[in-house]
Structure formats: C-alpha cells, structure tokens
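The data are set out underneath:

___
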Amino acid sequence: MTKRSGGLTANMNGKMFESRIAEILDLNDYDSTAQPENGVNLYGRTIRSDLLFEKNGEPIAIEAKHQGGRGSADEKYPFTVLSIKTGAVYPTIIVYGGGGARPSAIEWMKTQVGGMLIGVFDIVEFDDWLKGCGR
C-alpha cells in the first residue's frame, strides 16, 4: 500500500469538496462553471475561482476552502480575502469545510465580508443561502 503525501491528500480532499459544492448547486438547479477567471490577486496573477454561477441574474464566484486537519492552511485565508476585496471582478463567496481550520480564522474571515466578498459560509450555511434561508 502506498502512503499519500499530506499535500496530495489535501489536494484530493479539496477537489472532493469542490465537487460537493458543485453538486449542491446542481441539486438547487444552478448551472456552474469550474475554474473561471476572476480578476487578479495581490501579486498581479490571475485569480481562478473554483466555481461561478448565477443567482438572481448576478454572477457569483465561489472560493472553496477545505482544511481537514490542524496545520497552517488557514494562514492563507488573509491572502484569499484581500485578493477578492482588491482584485475580483465577480462578487465572491468563500465556502469552507473540513473542520481543521482554527475557529478564530473562520471568525476573522466572516468579519471581512464587504465589497466583493459577499459571504463566508460552511457547507450547510451555503445550501441554506442558496435556498434563500440564510443571509
């Protein structure tokens, strides 16, 4: 049996998380596009969001953030948030999951909602938001 590296496992978990989000969109009758260009990040490089869909005629990008265990991945959240707020062309939401992020990191992201960052949701909150039950 071959043991997977931490990076490979994280990448696979992230892809499965993106697939779950796409499935939720589909179950709620939203079409989505994977890996759309969404402006430029803090370093001037193209932002490739995970998904793009339309809600009430408005395009909305999704950044999927999955962190399954303890680690430093949540330290990348400020880069993502600041890149969205300063360079995104589509209003963007962050959907997080995995249970491994520090609670303070999630709370910080939620305090940053404004401008092009229009929401930060776990997967259940995201589903509720799509159905009009959440914020």
